[in-house]
Design goal:
The protein is an alpha+beta fold. The protein contains 5 helices and 8 strands; from the N terminus they run βααβββββββααα. The termini are close together.
């Protein structure tokens, strides 16, 4: 699963109430690296990658009375296409939508990966349906986002405080921010841990 950053520079600046472009901390490039590293550290703490998406192509067999397809990788972020294989090996793209009159299928339950067909397949066939889709989590849990933001702020504060070229007035700005994030940062990490354990207990650790 492709890893993603759990927050943006703008979100870090909004939470901290500062604009790094004013030259009072790390550069945007350094902050981008901090955000990526902090995101992965949150994953390490959780013991699982908390967000990211993967593209899939799956083939599903059909039975005469088949009315739904259950995708193997969940939750489903989006379905690009559902195609039906014809007897000559060619495929046709089936129409998505809940309108029974002129549509063929819809994504009924993204968490469970269930695609509903408006009409029974009406044929027993191997690999009749080709489904192209994306699974995973497009955005991290809010606990992971907040933990990442605060970790980046703490890293930026330490960088400024350890920089001998940083003005004393700037260091005085960073000291209370470093101190004030300590307890909240630890609380968010505990929430991340609890949420990841709960998710594994309920959903398992993913399907292949």
């Amino acid at each position: 699963m492709a890893a993603i950053d759990y927050c943006t520079l703008a979100e870090v600046e909004t939470y901290a109430g500062i604009n790094f472009s004013d030259g009072i901390g790390p550069t945007d490039t350094q902050l981008a690296d901090m955000i990526t590293n902090a995101s992965r550290l949150v994953d390490v703490y959780a013991g699982v990658q908390l967000a990211g998406t993967t593209d899939h192509v799956e083939y599903h067999d059909s039975t005469f009375r088949l009315q739904c397809l259950v995708l193997r990788n969940r939750p489903v972020v989006s379905v690009t296409s559902v195609e039906e294989t014809k007897s000559d090996g060619s495929t046709i793209v089936m129409d998505e939508g809940r309108e029974r009159a002129d549509k063929d299928w819809w994504l009924d339950d993204a968490e469970a990966g269930i695609i509903r067909l408006h009409a029974r397949a009406g044929v027993n066939a191997k690999q009749l349906f080709k489904v192209t889709y994306t699974s995973g989590y497009a955005a991290p849990p809010i606990e992971a986002k907040m933990a990442t933001i605060m970790l980046v702020i703490r890293q930026a504060a330490r960088a400024a405080l350890n920089d001998e070229n940083c003005a004393d007035r700037i260091k005085e700005m960073w000291r209370p921010l470093l101190a004030s994030t300590e307890s909240e940062y630890r609380e968010m990490l505990e929430r991340v841990k609890a949420k990841s354990l709960s998710s594994v207990a309920v959903f398992g650790n993913g399907g292949a």
